[in-house]
Amino acid sequence: MAGIEGDLTIWVLLHDAVLLVERYTKSNLEAQWLILEYANKRHFTECRFSGGQFIDPQFWNAHHPRFGLYIPVDFRNSTVTRLRAEPTEYLLPEMLVEKLKELPAPAARRERHARRSMPPEARLAARAEMLVEKFKELPTPEARLAARAAARAWPKPAWAGLCPPRSLQMHLVCLAHHELVSMLYKAGLLELSDPPPAPPMPEPRGVPEPTSEKEERPRPEPASKRTGKETPEWPSAEMLGLGPRAWQQRRIWTEMPEIYRRHPERFDSNRMWNRKASDLLISVQNLRDDKARAEGKASKAVSPDSCEDLLKAWKAWQTRHRASN
């Protein structure tokens, strides 16, 4: 699921948001860094997710070993995770606990006050006896090693209960489509005269379409017959009336044989497109994305108007062709 429609907002998963931005950047990695840069600038004011707890986009991709805080972003799976590890420096709660341990107990304070009121000779004797008792209470070297090994095996600082859980994660993180478009305009990747890109909508895979028992799907023809030559069944761009200025429609028309190889069920028996213009837009965009990904380049967006104009010219040619016959 690439887009989630709300009241007036179209939500795009992080994985599909990278693919959308990748059309205008040089690589997939640059698209990820651009989204993270504007997220840290508080550009994205809206965010939708499923499960977990909310993590503010301004803190995405945080890396603070000093405090043991890491917030990695997994664009492939559309997840944001907050991880807490052991800090490299003392934190305020731990410092307070250590200072409290250094303070003497009330009984020790009373004994210290009583010693101060004693004569100097008695005070020295009491001090010597106290040192002897403390020396007897000291653990042996073997006991100190055992205590140190136990502390390493079960590290549980006193301030562990004061910190949040070690792991928080947001699943199916989505960004608003209009804020992604605004980011492209601010970054200078889109001109003000350019139309905004359409949200990516991948085609469903593995879901068979309902068909009746009487109607059979047209089987794909051999590859040798599926060419863009000038034939009555597959006309040329000139026969459709596509002039040199209609270069976008002409480019889509040259890609129709490949689309027919991929999706023969979307054409009728006369190799005529039997779906909407939006379906043609998705098919052409997926084809260009696959070719650009194989070549390591950024694909260009398909104009919705070009798809509609091409279908109109195609249907007009079919009407003329049937009338002439």
Distance between the termini: 45 Å
* Arithmetic mean pLDDT: 75
3D shape: rod-shaped
Radius of gyration: 35 Å
Quaternary structure state of the chains depicted = single chain
| Helix-strand makeup class | alpha+beta
Our count of domains comes out at: 3
Spans with pLDDT under 50 lasting ≥5 residues? Answer: 1-6, 158-162, 204-208, 212-218, 220-232
Q: Largest beta sheet, briefly? A: 8 strands, antiparallel
Order of helices and strands: EEHHEEEEEHHHHEHHHH
Q: What amount of the residues lies in strands?
A: 5-15%
Binned, the helix content reads: 40-55%
Q: Based on DSSP secondary structure assignment, what is the total number of beta strands?
A: 8
The number of helices is 10
Kindly describe this structure:
This protein has 325 residues and is an alpha+beta fold. The chain folds into 3 domains: 3-85 and 166-175, no CATH class; 92-161, no CATH class; 221-325, no CATH class. It has 10 helices and 8 strands. It has helices at residues 14-22, 28-40, 92-102, 106-116, 120-137, 141-153, 177-186, 247-262, 277-295, 304-324, and strands at 3-5, 10-13, 47-50, 63-64, 69-70, 73-74, 79-84, 167-176.
Describe the structure concisely.
The chain is built from 10 helices and 8 strands.
